[in-house]
Amino acid sequence: MNIKATADDKVITIYRNISLSLTSLMYLLDHTGPSVFYKSLLIMVLFLFAQVFTIYYRRLRKWPRVLMLAVSIEMAGLIVLTLFTGGYDSSFKLYVLNPVLIAAGSLSIYFSWSLLFSYFGVISVFCYFFLNSSRKTFAEAVLDNGNLFLVMVLTVIVMQMVNRIKRQREAANARTNETMEHIKSLYHIVETSSQHDFMNIGQVITDYVVKLTKLDKALFWFAQKSGEPAPQSRQTGWHQEEERFLFAELEKHEHEWRLQREPVFKSLPGLGDFLLMPVRMSTRFVGMIGVKLEASEGLEGRRWYIQQLMFLSELSAIILERHELGVIENRLIITNEQNRIADEMHDSVSQSLFGIVYATHSLKQTWRKMSESELEEQIELIHDSATKVAKELRITIYSLSSKKSGGPTWLGMVRSHLKSLSRLNDVEIELKITGDDFSLPYPYHKALFRIISEATGNAIRHGAASRVDVELSLKPKWIRLSIVDDGVGFDTDLLWTESEDNTGGLGMKNMQYLAQSLGGDFQLSSSENAGTRILISIPVGVAELKNA
């Protein structure tokens, strides 16, 4: 099993090699003891064992108990080496710091100190009874080597302090990266959501609050809005009967919430302690985002929750405001388009139709008195007028179609998005499309774009793929989508387990929900170092029948 060496692994390897080289050189230059040949042979064996232990330390870092055993074995070997090369006078007495530093950096504090004091005890006792030629007392022997012990103790203390700071930094970075991934995924969902999805914005937000804060319960309460229905208040973590009581309690304080502009800690009777954050658009008060706090949370944890809720509050306000502006814009566009079509119909088509009706009525009254040539001429005139009207109607209808008028099509948007993604990330993305999306209903456009965008983004961000193949087949009754990458892959069983525990699998879960919401089938296959394959089949028309 080839495990890539981290920066820490490289530093440890360099330190071990340098420390062993220096101690070996001192051992060789010491004229006492065995011959240079035997010393050189011993040093070669030491270098061999040092490399073996370095490799195994790298491989065993995920198994602490086995790593403890390996460190203990190396420590025992170094104790024997130190005793048989002079004890306190051995050139290798400081090389024993190597396993101690491994223990201090990767294992528990108690183990590293136990290892160090075991070394002190064994060396001190053995040297006192077997290497005490000057007949010093035990206390004198220990005090004479106090500097050696002090150096080792201080080294372990410093190593543990550095390691603690490093772990705190890694935890903070991991939490920040996880938060950013959740936020990007959240923004992607709400950015591409349809009107139907938008009414569930509260549920989307509360689910993400739980994921970001790692708390069990969150809520998004919407205040009453006059004129139009507001999104429904949502919660995550409470039972259905508790939900009604929760939102009833929040409604009792509606006047108080409308005056709030900062985070507020509130204790609600029968529910516990809450951290609540107002959500405000530029024009009105929307509602409150909140979490139920646990009794064990300290001040630092509460600050973290405040930061997350403040961000989600601002993001929610922006999303809601954009949606409302989008609704107004769409209404204006529709109204303007209706007025334009009405004007065109009135100015051209309706006038021509009136002329045809009038000419037909006149012909009905006078055709018996007309000659055959006059009758033929009149019918030809009516025919030409009807042809002209049909042409004008065709032009008006075609002007409404982006495909006919040369405007941006949905497939063009997909191609443009994947092309930009390919250029920005230096990844080869191959898109193959068969069929036409012209008659495809709008909800399918939304869902397919979100799935393609999510899957290709995951392949690049998480899979480190260098190539992604996207194949989209659009048939009158079926849609089939295949997305295959050559990335690192993952364990799908572990993914769905983490998803159920609210710890992962968010993008895959979203894609599965989108496919199933349209009556489709979602298939995922992947394994480590073998890439990922997503297959989706969606029947056209099933979603409309379900919503009818």
Automatic annotation (TrEMBL):
<comment type="function">
    <text>Member of the two-component regulatory system NreB/NreC involved in the control of dissimilatory nitrate/nitrite reduction in response to oxygen. NreB functions as a direct oxygen sensor histidine kinase which is autophosphorylated, in the absence of oxygen, probably at the conserved histidine residue, and transfers its phosphate group probably to a conserved aspartate residue of NreC. NreB/NreC activates the expression of the nitrate (narGHJI) and nitrite (nir) reductase operons, as well as the putative nitrate transporter gene narT.</text>
</comment>
<feature type="transmembrane region" description="Helical">
    <location>
        <begin position="108"/>
        <end position="131"/>
    </location>
</feature>
<keyword id="KW-0418">Kinase</keyword>
<dbReference type="GO" id="GO:0005886">
    <property type="term" value="C:plasma membrane"/>
</dbReference>
<keyword id="KW-1003">Cell membrane</keyword>
<dbReference type="GO" id="GO:0005737">
    <property type="term" value="C:cytoplasm"/>
</dbReference>
<keyword id="KW-0004">4Fe-4S</keyword>
<keyword id="KW-0902">Two-component regulatory system</keyword>
<feature type="transmembrane region" description="Helical">
    <location>
        <begin position="36"/>
        <end position="57"/>
    </location>
</feature>
<dbReference type="GO" id="GO:0051539">
    <property type="term" value="F:4 iron, 4 sulfur cluster binding"/>
</dbReference>
<dbReference type="GO" id="GO:0046872">
    <property type="term" value="F:metal ion binding"/>
</dbReference>
<keyword id="KW-0472">Membrane</keyword>
<dbReference type="InterPro" id="IPR011712">
    <property type="entry name" value="Sig_transdc_His_kin_sub3_dim/P"/>
</dbReference>
<protein>
    <recommendedName>
        <fullName>Oxygen sensor histidine kinase NreB</fullName>
        <ecNumber>2.7.13.3</ecNumber>
    </recommendedName>
</protein>
<dbReference type="InterPro" id="IPR004358">
    <property type="entry name" value="Sig_transdc_His_kin-like_C"/>
</dbReference>
<keyword id="KW-0411">Iron-sulfur</keyword>
<feature type="domain" description="Histidine kinase">
    <location>
        <begin position="448"/>
        <end position="542"/>
    </location>
</feature>
<dbReference type="GO" id="GO:0000155">
    <property type="term" value="F:phosphorelay sensor kinase activity"/>
</dbReference>
<keyword id="KW-0963">Cytoplasm</keyword>
<keyword id="KW-1133">Transmembrane helix</keyword>
<keyword id="KW-0067">ATP-binding</keyword>
<keyword id="KW-0479">Metal-binding</keyword>
<dbReference type="InterPro" id="IPR050482">
    <property type="entry name" value="Sensor_HK_TwoCompSys"/>
</dbReference>
<dbReference type="InterPro" id="IPR005467">
    <property type="entry name" value="His_kinase_dom"/>
</dbReference>
<dbReference type="InterPro" id="IPR003594">
    <property type="entry name" value="HATPase_dom"/>
</dbReference>
<dbReference type="GO" id="GO:0046983">
    <property type="term" value="F:protein dimerization activity"/>
</dbReference>
<keyword id="KW-0408">Iron</keyword>
<feature type="transmembrane region" description="Helical">
    <location>
        <begin position="143"/>
        <end position="162"/>
    </location>
</feature>
<dbReference type="Pfam" id="PF07730">
    <property type="entry name" value="HisKA_3"/>
</dbReference>
<dbReference type="Pfam" id="PF02518">
    <property type="entry name" value="HATPase_c"/>
</dbReference>
<dbReference type="GO" id="GO:0005524">
    <property type="term" value="F:ATP binding"/>
</dbReference>
<keyword id="KW-0808">Transferase</keyword>
<keyword id="KW-0812">Transmembrane</keyword>
<dbReference type="InterPro" id="IPR036890">
    <property type="entry name" value="HATPase_C_sf"/>
</dbReference>
<keyword id="KW-0547">Nucleotide-binding</keyword>
<feature type="transmembrane region" description="Helical">
    <location>
        <begin position="66"/>
        <end position="88"/>
    </location>
</feature>
